[in-house]
């Protein structure tokens, strides 16, 4: 018989995690689907269940010098209401599910679920966000791409849970989000894209591109980004095709019921091209 | 007299908005038991052996051995088993029901059942024709012989899922020793009743079918519920307990009937002036594993071959093919959407091939009053298409946009479809098969009951039919009652399908109300019945498919404007304009509701709704993967209703339900075609397909 545990404090939750093996339910919007049963029957959980959704200690947004700290159980709708969260985050998050889902779903849940099609985590890669994991033994802070190691796979230990997400502040000139989902609401991404750039006197100071749903995890090619840092937009224009080819080699999409490998490959390339050409045109 | 079109609150508004309406799954009964269906997991196989776990007391399995009567579902073509016996022919084919009191135990029993199969070769291509039909008009062969040129195009359409809000379901129980009562989410109470009588081999009075509140149907609850009804009736007799069966969404999407995928080959014989002399057409429908209604769907597809155009010489053929896939069936439009997509695109493509302006080309072939229909009947009633097209083009600024969007770098397009929809059953179906009967009963307190088998599945039948009676009698609304049909109480006024309810059932109710009014005796119980009689002018030969295929036609024009992203190849529908001739709107708001819902479904059929199978397994089996438009995808609509009263319809009304769907796909496809500068011959026009077209990749 599966045990259902509702801790009354974050500390208590960590103690349970130390002493048992649990599914952790934050908003529950992924896990309830994953273990769903026939209608009217309880989910087919494989382990005991720890419901952390009521832990108000982890529902916060702290604006600090240089960073935002987002408590793990902060719902997406709360994040969307915050005046200082950058638009690129909000435009990605507003594309998640519908309003009802966003009132319970959490950013930490999106990270822990580690879906390659997750919209919520894409801007975290763009901003080099860090994830604070904690257990009774202590806490550790990992970059987002070290936490999500593969489709549905994470570096989160069995006794750990996500405490908070730390997002460094950046002053990009432009930071955009594009979701390709075929319909405008309640769609799962076929391809998703984030692009950000900082240009000073025609020279690229920073360029970051992320792609979702086209590889086992979100793609952020820091080595390719490095090749264009310090060059001018004019020089970028000359190198554009080579850069697109280099990205194409990193994109490894699949065929599934939602789209084709071919389409995902082509659209991912188009999205990068379109973003970069817009920056080049702006000069 | 006040205008009947003026809207009144919907009859079912209060109970639905308040949550009081009882859908099947809301129905509770003492000692309720439940049933779950055990299904085939492969497309074609012989059942070698079935191993059942030991069943706890109070649990039974029900399969073909338990059927006292015929093991097929009574519908037009009787090839569809109630339960598979030795061979399964599609994934999800029902083999047995597991019934009992506790759902978890039922689930465990289902999980433990082992079925051993011997796999047989499945067929997925259209190669085994089981229904072939053809008809001729004029002399197509001679016209092709003298043609200046012949142009051929092939058009393909995919599956479409009805995606009703409420999945399929029934509650069944015994009344006394042998009478079985079924309460279901259904369109056609008497279809279910007649099917159950054959399966149980019982007397008609031993089956009672009651309609629960229906959460959408769109044709999906026309013939399919008969299958569940037969299974449940057998189970109720075996277990002798009330049993509820409610499909899961995925189960529903995998096993229930869908719109037939089609492939239509069109050939036109053109004269030297570029007029269409003749058309040869062949339409192929994929029926799935059983024929069911597919032959009738084929008829409606073929009869729509020239849609709103008049072509003098026709050679029209069609075939229904069996494949080892889920059986396809009724869906709003019933074959017409496939053909109207083909013919409207074909006319557009012929004009482009000839270097002519498509608008003028189509105009030159437009059907007019007095013309011969595709089946050599006559368009007797006035056709308002000139004025309707003028209205639609002016309100959408069609002609200017058509020019502006011609340049390749704007990625915008505007498309227009013209179409008709035959109202009621095809040919002599109403008089030969349906023989609709309606009844009005007045109590001694002068309260009037509308007794018909017509189902309100959200489309507004309760409101419009009651309105016809109320207005004809000239009594207050609260003096008339229209309860959900119960076959113990209402005569068989026919199924709620084929855009027949307002025109045929409403027409009979208007006659009955008129008679009741004329013979009204205060304080006395009175009963008035009317039975359908085919208008004398309708002459139809079912064998040659010649004559008046329908007593009346509704007409429509859809204009759709889109933009297409050259980066993601996604289509955004910007706006939709529609003009309809439905004779006379029995309630304006209800017709506008039908118009918005129909065009949403019709346009989405053209560009958004993708369903495919892989080796017979449906790939898009939930609402996450099967993409229907949400409120934010739906473009603004502007709809105008023209009055063109039909003499035999109540207050002049003709059919409404299907008309607003059938023209959506060609209109959006033509708009996409203009936006991307490439011809569209296949729907849905997905971003993946648009990419290949825009990049000139072979398809």
What are the low-pLDDT stretches of chain B, counting only 5+ consecutive residues below 50?
none
Regarding quaternary structure, what we see is heterodimer
* CATH architecture tag of the largest domain in chain A: 2-Layer Sandwich
Give the overall pLDDT of chain B as a whole number: 97
| Most residues in contact, chain pair and counts | A-B, 27 and 28 residues
Beta-strand content estimate of chain B: 15-25%
Gyration radius from CA atoms of chain A, angstroms? 20 Å
What is the highest CATH level, the class of the largest domain in chain A?
Alpha Beta
Shape of chain B: globular
CATH names the topology of the largest domain in chain B as Aldehyde Oxidoreductase, domain 4
Give a short account of the largest sheet of chain B: 7 strands, mixed
Count the E strands of chain B. 27
Number of domain modules of chain A: 2
SSE order of chain A, as H and E?
EHEHEEEHHHHHEEHEEEEEEHHH
Overall pLDDT confidence of chain A: 96
Rg from alpha-carbon coordinates of chain B: 25 Å
List keywords for this structure.
heterodimer, A: 283 residues, alpha+beta, Uridine Diphospho-n-acetylenolpyruvylglucosamine Reductase, domain 3, Enolase-like, domain 1, five-stranded antiparallel beta sheet, three-stranded parallel beta sheet, 11 helices, 33% helix, 25% strand, B: 699 residues, Aldehyde Oxidoreductase, domain 4, 3 domains, seven-stranded mixed beta sheet, 18 helices, 27 strands, globular
Description:
The complex is a heterodimer of chains A (283) and B (699). With 283 residues, chain A is an alpha+beta fold. Chain A has helices at 10-19, 31-34, 76-81, 87-93, 99-102, 107-113, 122-126, 144-147, 222-228, 233-250, 261-282; strands spanning 4-5, 22-25, 48-51, 61-64, 67-71, 130-135, 138-143, 148-150, 153-154, 161-168, 174-180, 191-200, 203-212. Chain A is built from eleven helices and 13 strands. In chain A, helix 10 (233-250) runs antiparallel to helix 11 (261-282). Chain A starts with a strand and ends with a helix. Chain B has 699 residues and is an alpha+beta fold. Chain B is built from 18 helices and 27 strands. In chain B, strand 23 and strand 24 form a beta hairpin. The longest helix of chain B has 20 residues, at 588-607. The interface between A and B is medium-sized, with 27 and 28 residues.
């Amino acid at each position: 018989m599966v045990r259902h545990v509702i801790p009354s404090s974050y500390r208590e939750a960590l103690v349970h995690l130390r002493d048992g093996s649990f599914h952790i339910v934050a908003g529950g919007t992924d896990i309830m689907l994953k273990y769903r049963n026939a209608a009217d029957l309880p989910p087919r959980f494989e382990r005991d269940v720890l419901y952390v959704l009521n832990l108000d200690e982890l529902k916060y947004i702290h604006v600090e010098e240089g960073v935002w700290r987002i408590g793990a159980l902060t719902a997406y709708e709360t994040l969307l209401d915050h005046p200082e969260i950058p638009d690129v985050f909000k435009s990605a998050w507003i594309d998640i599910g519908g309003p009802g889902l966003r009132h319970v779903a959490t950013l930490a849940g999106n990270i822990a679920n580690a879906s390659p099609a997750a919209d919520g985590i894409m801007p975290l890669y763009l901003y080099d966000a860090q994830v604070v994991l904690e257990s009774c033994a202590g806490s550790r802070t990992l970059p987002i791409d070290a936490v999500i190691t593969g489709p549905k796979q994470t570096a989160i230990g069995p006794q750990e849970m996500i405490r908070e997400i730390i997002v460094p502040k950046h002053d990009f000139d432009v930071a955009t989000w594009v979701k390709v989902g075929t319909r405008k609401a309640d769609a799962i991404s076929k391809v998703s894209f984030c692009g950000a750039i900082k240009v000073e006197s025609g020279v690229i100071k920073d360029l970051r591109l992320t792609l979702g749903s086209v590889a086992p995890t979100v793609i952020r090619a820091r080595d390719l980004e490095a090749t264009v840092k310090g060059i001018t937009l004019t020089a970028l224009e000359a190198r554009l095709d080579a850069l697109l080819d280099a990205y194409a080699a990193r994109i490894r999409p699949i065929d599934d019921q939602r789209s084709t490998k071919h389409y995902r490959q082509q659209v991912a390339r188009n999205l990068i091209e379109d973003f970069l050409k817009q920056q080049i045109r702006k000069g | 007299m006040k205008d009947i079109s003026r809207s009144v609150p919907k009859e079912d508004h209060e109970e639905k908005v308040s949550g009081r309406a009882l859908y099947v799954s809301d129905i509770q009964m003492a000692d309720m038991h439940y049933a779950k269906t055990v299904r085939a997991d492969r497309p074609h196989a012989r059942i070698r052996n079935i191993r059942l776990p030991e069943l706890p007391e109070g649990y039974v399995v029900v399969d073909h051995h338990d059927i006292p009567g015929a093991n097929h579902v009574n519908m037009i073509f009787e090839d569809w088993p109630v339960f598979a016996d030795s061979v399964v022919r599609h994934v999800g084919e029902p083999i047995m029901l597991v019934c009992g009191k506790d759902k978890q135990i039922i689930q465990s029993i289902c999980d433990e059942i082992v079925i051993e199969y011997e796999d047989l070769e499945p067929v997925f291509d259209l190669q085994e024709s089981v229904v072939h039909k053809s008809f001729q008009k004029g002399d197509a062969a001679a016209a092709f012989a003298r043609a200046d040129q012949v142009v051929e195009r092939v058009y393909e359409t995919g599956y479409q899922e009805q995606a009703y809000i409420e999945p399929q379901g029934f509650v069944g129980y015994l009344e006394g020793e042998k009478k079985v009562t079924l309460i279901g989410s259904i369109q056609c109470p008497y279809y279910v009743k007649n099917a159950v009588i054959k399966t149980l081999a019982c007397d008609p009075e031993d089956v009672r079918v009651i309609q629960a509140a229906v959460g959408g149907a769109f044709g999906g609850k026309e013939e399919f519920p008969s299958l569940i009804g037969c299974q449940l009736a057998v189970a109720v007799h075996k277990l002798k307990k009330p049993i509820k069966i409610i499909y899961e969404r995925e189960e529903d999407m995998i096993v229930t009937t869908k719109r037939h995928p089609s492939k239509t080959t069109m050939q036109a014989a053109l004269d030297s002036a570029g007029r269409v002399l003749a058309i040869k057409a062949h339409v192929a429908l994929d029926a799935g594993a059983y024929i069911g209604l597919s032959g009738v769907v084929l008829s409606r597809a073929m009869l729509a071959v020239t849609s709103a155009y008049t072509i003098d010489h026709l050679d029209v053929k069609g075939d229904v093919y069996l494949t080892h896939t889920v059986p396809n069936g009724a869906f709003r439009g019933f074959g017409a959407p496939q053909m109207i997509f083909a013919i409207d695109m074909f006319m557009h493509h012929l004009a482009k091939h000839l270097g002519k302006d498509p608008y003028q080309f189509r105009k030159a072939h437009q059907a007019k009053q007095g013309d011969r229909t595709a089946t050599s009947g006559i368009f007797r009633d006035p056709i308002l298409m000139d004025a309707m097209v003028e209205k639609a083009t002016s309100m959408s600024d069609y002609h200017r946009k058509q020019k502006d969007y011609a340049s390749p770098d704007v990625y915008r397009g505007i498309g227009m479809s013209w179409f008709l929809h035959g109202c009621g059953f095809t040919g002599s179906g109403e008089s030969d098969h349906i023989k609709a009967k309606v009844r009005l009963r007045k109590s001694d307190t002068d309260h009037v009951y509308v007794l018909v088998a017509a189902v309100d599945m959200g489309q507004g039948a309760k409101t419009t039919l009651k309105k016809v009676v109320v207005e004809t009698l000239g009594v207050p609304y609260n003096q008339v009652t229209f309860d959900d049909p119960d076959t113990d109480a209402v005569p068989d006024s026919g199924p709620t399908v084929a855009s027949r309810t307002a025109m045929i059932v409403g027409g009979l109710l208007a006659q009955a109300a008129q008679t009741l009014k004329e013979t009204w005796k205060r304080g006395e119980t009175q009963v008035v019945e009317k039975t359908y009689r085919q208008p004398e002018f309708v002459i139809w030969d079912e064998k040659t498919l010649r004559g008046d295929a329908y007593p009346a036609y509704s007409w429509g024009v859809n204009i759709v404007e889109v933009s297409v992203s050259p980066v993601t190849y996604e289509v955004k529908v910007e706006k939709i304009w529609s003009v309809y001739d439905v004779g006379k709107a029995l309630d304006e708001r209800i017709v506008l509701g039908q118009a918005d819902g129909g065009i949403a479904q019709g346009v989405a059929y053209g560009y958004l709704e993708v369903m495919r199978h892989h080796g017979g397994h449906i790939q898009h089996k939930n609402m996450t993967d099967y993409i229907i438009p949400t409120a934010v995808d739906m473009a603004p609509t502007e709809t105008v209703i023209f009055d063109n009263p039909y003499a035999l319809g109540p207050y002049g009304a003709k059919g409404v339900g299907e008309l607003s769907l059938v023209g959506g796909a060609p209109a959006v496809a033509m708009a996409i075609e203009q936006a991307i500068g490439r011809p569209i011959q296949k729907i849905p026009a997905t971003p993946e397909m648009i990419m290949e077209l825009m990049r000139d990749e072979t398809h």
